[in-house]
Design goal:
The chain has a 5-stranded parallel β-sheet with strand order 2-3-1-4-7. By secondary structure, the chain is α/β, with parallel strands linked by helices. It is 46% helix and 14% strand. The structure holds BIS(adenosine)-5'-pentaphosphate (AP5). BIS(adenosine)-5'-pentaphosphate binds next to helix 1, helix 2, helix 3, helix 6 and strand 6.
Length: 222
Amino acid sequence: MSGRHQQVVIMFGPPGAGKGTQSSILADKLGIPHLSTGAMFRHHISNATELGREAKSYLDKGQLVPDDITVGMLAERIKQDDCAAGFILDGFPRTVFQAKTLDNLLNVRNVPATNVHVVALVVPDDVIIQRQSGRRVAHKSGKIYHLEHNPPKIAGVCDVSGEPLVQRDDDKPEVVTARLKVYHAQTEPLLEHYKGSGTVITVDGTQPMDAVTAEIINKLEQ
Ligand code: AP5
């Protein structure tokens, strides 16, 4: 597989920074798939697979799923045909081990470092806590809404699938606080790993959603 033309975008930021929202828009614009490890775990949990049973206790507490499970799942996913031209990673990597494993996986695919872009969404913790309480999701369509900032056309119903919107189990305030702590302790330090290779784009994630998208596209094109 020739990696020269593959594009890999790593969406980076705290829980609720807008990684999923922006990944889905970018996937449409760039024509490459949006891969969310969190969504993959939730899919396994709702289908009661063995992987889902293993992952559930970690998601419920806001902790990271062990690296071996997470890396194995992601490595399998990027082998699929739809990833041939690249992919957008949302929520991966989250540990130094995951970042180093990803470096190896991209080396094997011959993806040049210049084709790997880390988009770091910067949002302070107090804004995160407010955002997560208003988030509503549609599991089948994967659409993400916010009661105030991005409401559906009909209250409580997904615009795309018509399914009822639900609150994620890990959006309870105590779990959001735990996820933020895990982010600052284990994931935020990864930015140093990527700053060394000069691929980090920093974007103010507190702007309105379309302004965030415009800034990301603008900086990716520079
Ligand atoms: P995951 O599903 O990845 O959750 P997360 O990283 O905590 O991120 P979120 O999905 O909460 O937020 P987001 O940044 O995507 O924001 P969103 O666009 O939804 O992971 C869940 C769990 O899975 C983890 O806790 C862990 O247990 C496990 N896991 C996943 N990956 C793992 C890994 N690699 N290793 C180990 N474990 C892993 O936006 C949030 C809200 O804000 C929405 O309501 C949205 O409408 C709104 N919003 C978005 N942008 C804006 C804006 N600009 N202005 C106003 N509102 C906005």
